[in-house]
Amino acid sequence: MKYDRAEAVRYMGAKKDDNEAAVLADLAYLQLRNEVRPRSCWQIFACRVDDAGVTLVDNGMRFESKNLAGHLQGCQKAAVLAATLGSNADTVLRRLALTNVAQAAAAQAVCAALIESYCDETEAEIAAAAGLHLKPRFSPGYGDWRLEDQRQLLMLLDCAKRIGLTLTDGYMLTPIKSVTAVIGLTEDTVCNTSKCAACVNRACEFRKE
């Protein structure tokens, strides 16, 4: 997992040549680097895709989402992924929120960049294990995919036991700097590798074209 300063600055909503934002990001990273404990788990499943959603053939688990189905069109396998930076990162974020608002915002951005980097590394492991190409991650809450389906993904991977990842009553992940996703596996070498292109939120301020 690498620290990408430019990506952190982007998550801060600053311009890439904003030196003040870069300094804040670097200071935040220094406070986080020894606290972050990245962990992940994943599993590959055969899947069946129809117009209304996706079914994992191995266990019959069903996800009703036209957007997810469209994203996985043509895939016969999918990986389910969960990743987290760990609870220590949450502790740092809470402390900074009470003591230094600007530093807290920078730390939030740094954590966002770190979890993205870690997920990218984990995806490379999945691709190597499967011998296939990967479509971008697609997570509950994207488009019409219900956030409530986070619970199914966590149960499927036994996340609480394996990586300490759980869910609040409001279906939010805890630790908060965590990700769950489904990733389509394909033999198609011309597959979209842009995570932003997979998202239907065209107005997102962090969107990459």
From TrEMBL:
It comes from the Bacteria. One of its GO terms (molecular function) is methionine synthase activity. InterPro entries: VitB12-dep_Met_synth_activ_sf. This is Vitamin B12 dependent methionine synthase activation domain protein. It comes from Phascolarctobacterium faecium.
